[in-house]
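Please go through this protein, sequence plus structure tokens, and consider how the sequence yields the tokens. Keep your notes short.
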Amino acid sequence: MTRGAKPDLLGAHISTQGGVALAPERGRAIGATAIQIFTKTPNQWREPAISAETAREFERALVRHGITAAVSHDSYLINLASPNPSSRARSHASFVAELRRAELLGIPIVVTHPGNYLDRRASGLARNAEAYAACLGAVPGEVRIAIETTAGAGTALGATFEELAELLDRMPARAQTRVAFCVDTCHLFAAGYDLVGDFDGVWRAFDRILGLELLAVLHLNDSKGVLGSHLDRHQLIGEGELGPSPFRRIMRDPRFRDVIKLIETPKGDDGVTNDRRMLRRLRAYTRRGRRGTGTLRPGR
């Protein structure tokens, strides 16, 4: 990035091993200007306390290492759509704790997977929407949630734009103002949205049903699974079933310029080299062969 250029909001999911305040430096090591973190161990229910001093260290580290955007991702264990009252209550408590940690750390967005309905889809959507609204109500403030598109395996909610729109519509207006969306390119492709053969059509549908103004985060991941496979397996950028084209177009499309873009691709042995290489590849896509890219014009 040249001196004085606007940060490109590009980065990766970064390890917080040893403490969240270490993540920004790891982000800088791979050339990131944006990071995503877990504020807790994602496959455990234990809720760690974050001190005010740790929060200050984290915020200072963001500035020191040139990280201009940070988001968190909620725990893999959370299922706010569960029909089991005990499981749903535990998920509610964990999600509220995640929102509170984000608020303390100055993180404005928590990326969250919709739940698994397990019984009936309509009932699961109702429970999920009610729980999101209740959790946001329990943590008043500026922290927003970005509901992530899913690959649609099993009883997972959120594999279609229509279902995400229904989830939003079921929330009260006061909660809706704090809801945005995160699109994962691997999940989208696996769910049947053809980003390779119908890139323009996919984004027109998103804009019509959800609104591009609600797109807060892009997870840029290639897919090991074919179109419509419902397989949530990430691959290195340009080396899976999606190939380079959708990523080139995303990186060149002015509508996505201010959207936070994060990779969750395989880390490799050292956790650094692959991420650094993928970010360089994505930035190269913005510079090469601009003519004939098929970039969409802003607007619908």
Observations:
- The chain has one domain: 10-285.
- The first helix runs from residue 23 to 29.
- Strands lie at 10-13, 34-37, 69-73, 109-112, 144-148, 179-184, 215-219, 222-223, 234-235, 260-263.
- Residues 10-285 form a domain with the TIM Barrel fold (CATH 3.20.20.150).
